[in-house]
Each structure stands twice: as structure tokens, then as C-alpha cells.
Amino acid sequence: MTKVRIGFIGAGWWATANHIPLLAQHPDVELAGVCRLGREMLLAVQEKFGFPFATEDYHELLAQGLDGVVVTSPHHVHYEHARAALLQGCHVMVEKPMTLRADHAWELVNLARERNLHLLVPYGWQYKAINHKAKHYLDQGLVGTIEHVVCQMASPTKALFGGSGAPPAQQRANFTEPDPATWQGKEQGGGYAHGQLTHAAGLLFWLTGLRAQTVQAHTSAPNAQVDLYNAATVIFDGGALGVVSGAATLPPGSPFQVDIRIFGSDGALFLDLERARLEVVRHDGTRLAEELAPDAGAYSCDDPPARFVELIQGRGVNDSPGEAAARSVEFIDAMLRSAAAGGAATRVY
Ligand SMILES: NC(=O)c1ccc[n+]([C@@H]2O[C@H](COP(=O)([O-])OP(=O)(O)OC[C@H]3O[C@@H](n4cnc5c(N)ncnc54)[C@H](O)[C@@H]3O)[C@@H](O)[C@H]2O)c1
Fewer Cβ close by (within 10 Å): the C or N end of the chain? Predict the structure, then answer.
């Protein structure tokens, strides 16, 4: 069987810690080429992973006859890089946030659809069994019509967004640290909302199929250049109400918190990834509580790169498709526009 030829745009902290090493070990993958800025680091990445081709110009990479492109550049260039790869006819795995702007996100979704290409956003949580079970319960209609949602996320990322720039201890760099501008540069989409809350929002939209319609929000940035806290109220299509909260400042080493509570006409579902809780309670008296390992909700991003390869090979299911990621992007885009306007009610689309 011919190997799947993968090229990488962006090879900083996350690509060299996760995607490139995982795909380097994959028996069906050929690491075809890499693109990043900075000649010295580019050559260091090329040597470490044995890439036959390396360039600082992504157009040159896209001319290498690739099957798939992995985009792990800073948020604000995801759109440009993913769009160019799709236009070149490549399947794309583009990091979260897929884009910073709603119109850009939907453009990528439409481009992929029109060209019959896979578009995957590697939200690692969406590949975990606990979340698949939660989605199964919701798809079965166990809570009925969704009427209210609470979605809270907190991360040990005070340094990443507001300090030295170091990543969380759970995800240490093994080759290079992130450029602080990637996470703390306002013009690059730095801050908790695009950097972390996107995970919880992406999971919420994937689980529920909801689409946000109107948002009122505030953010704050104590002693930081970019948002560390997010507080939003949401009206979804169909009239469900939601409250979404984000906090960047758990102490180092603390487990990530994602707590999603979904209340519906027939019951409620409680999903807590920190404490590995998945429970459904229904008005007919049914109560379902999953027996889970204590780390069943722990974050990792091991599965998406391999799934991307499977999809290119014509197998498997995309558990983090661009369409759900776009609903997360449009929500966060509107949330930040509302916050910038002092909490004004802001249309999402
Ligand atoms: N899914 C996850 O769990 C997860 C985890 C961490 C990071 N990420 C995402 O990965 C992305 C990268 O984060 P990072 O911490 O690795 O950043 P980083 O600053 O360490 O790396 C960014 C890379 O992009 C390259 N780059 C920048 N502009 C470029 C351009 N115009 N053309 C080509 N290359 C360019 C840089 O040279 C560098 O190699 C972010 O969008 C982040 O949200 C996702």
C-alpha cells in the first residue's frame, strides 16, 4: 500500500511535541515536508524528524504532491494555511481554533465540502470514550429537547497566557517552547477564549448539535495583555439558554476542568471531565451513571493524527469535523465582539 504523504505547516511547540512524533511512528505515513519560520529551527526540525524537504514558504511545501496537510501555525494564520492546502486539493487537519473569524471558518467548511476533502480539527477530548458515551446518550434523546446548558472550563495556563509563556506541566515541550506571541499576542488571537475555551465550546457544539444565535459576554485580563477569564450568556437556535465560563488561572499541575451540564425537557446530563463523571437523570425515574476510571476525562491528543490518516485512506469517522468547529469559532468570535462592546447583545450569524 502506498504511504500517505503528509506535510506540516507550523513546527513549534505543539507540532514537535504531538503531531510530528506521532505521525513519524505511523507505519502508513511518509513525512513529506515541513514548513516553519526561522531557518535555524527549521533545519533543526528537519534533522530531528528526518524530513526530506523543508522550507519557510508554505507555497513550496504545498507543491510537494501531498495527500494531507497538518496546520499547527499560530491561530491567526490557520485560515490562510488551511485554505491554501484545501485549494491545492489536500485533506487538512488544522489546529484549534480553526480560524479567528466566523466567515473564515464557514468558508473552510464549504471549501472542504465542495472538494470532497476531509477537514479535521484535533480537539483531543472528542476522541475519548467518556464523551462518545455522552454523545450517544444525547443522540438517543435521553434528555429530550435541550433547554439549558452550563459549560465551564478552567486550565493551569496562567503562565502560558499571562506570564513566562510556558505550557501546562501536563504538556511539557520536548523540543521547543511556544513563542509567547502565539498565546499572548492580541493581534494573533491570543488569550483564553481562542486558546482554551474553544476546547469546551467545540465539545459542547459537537455533543449537542446546538448553534449559538446571540451572545452577551465579558472578559477580563488581570495583569495580562489578553483575556484570562470569559463569562458569556448565550441564546441558542431553538431558544435554549446557556452560560459559558472560562478561567486560565488554575495553579500549575492542577487537572483541566471541563464541566458541561445539559438540561432538557425529559432529563439532564452531567459530564465532568476533571472528576470523570457522566450521569443522566430523567423525569421518568431513570438514572444512568457510568463506571469510569479516574482518568477517563484526562486530556490527550493522541487519536486525531491517526484518525486523519485513516480518513485519507477512506476509513473511520471524523469525530472533530470542521462543521462543529465552525460553530465554536462563530460563538467565540461573537463572544469577543460582545465583550469589546461592553457586553452588548451580539448576533452570532
Ligand atoms: N489541540 C491541542 O490540544 C493543542 C495544544 C497546543 C497547541 N495547539 C494549537 O497549535 C497551534 C500552535 O501552537 P504552538 O504553541 O505550537 O505555537 P508555536 O509558537 O510554538 O509554533 C508556531 C509555529 O508556526 C510557525 N509559523 C508562524 N507563522 C508562520 C507562517 N506564516 N508560515 C509558516 N509557519 C509559520 C512558527 O515558525 C512555529 O513553528 C495553536 O493554534 C494552538 O492553539 C493545539
Answer: N
Name the residue of 77, 128, 182 to mutate for ligand 1: max ligand atoms within 8 A of Cβ.
182
C-alpha radius of gyration, the chain, whole number? 20
Which pLDDT band, with edges at 50, 70 and 90, does 307 fall under?
A: very high
Output the CA 16–ligand 1 centroid distance in Å: 10
Q: pLDDT at residue 174 above 90?
A: no
Chain centroid, CA 329 distance in Å: 10
CA-nearest of 75, 65, 3 to 325 is 75
Ligand 1 centroid distance, CA of 40 (Å):
17
Tell how far the Cα of 211 is from the centroid of ligand 1, in angstroms: 27
d(CA 192, ligand 1 centre) in Å: 15
- Residue 112 and residue 256: Cα distance in Å, rounded? 32
* Residue of 19, 71, 73, 104 to test ligand 1 pocket, by largest number of atoms within 8 Å of CB: 73
pLDDT 10s digits, 19-32: 999 999 999 999 99
What is the CB neighbour count within 10 angstroms for residue 43?
12
Per-residue pLDDT of 110-144, as tens digits, reads 999 999 999 999 999 999 999 999 999 999 999 99
Q: Which of the four pLDDT bands, split at 50, 70 and 90, describes residue 1?
A: low
Euclidean distance between CA atoms 162 and 172, whole angstroms: 17
What residue ranges define each of the domains in the chain, with the CATH number in brackets?
4-123 (3.40.50.720), 125-299+320-347 (3.30.360.10)
Long-range contacts (CB closer than 8 Å, 24 or more residues apart) made by 321-325: 321/119, 321/120, 321/121, 322/94, 322/98, 322/105, 322/108, 322/109, 322/112, 322/119, 322/120, 322/121, 323/109, 324/202, 324/205, 324/206, 325/96, 325/97, 325/98, 325/105, 325/121, 325/123, 325/202
Q: Which atom of ligand 1 is nearest to 15's Cα?
A: 16
- Say if CB 196 and CB 189 are below 8 A apart: no
**What residue has cell string 503531531?**
19
Position 172 scores a pLDDT of 77
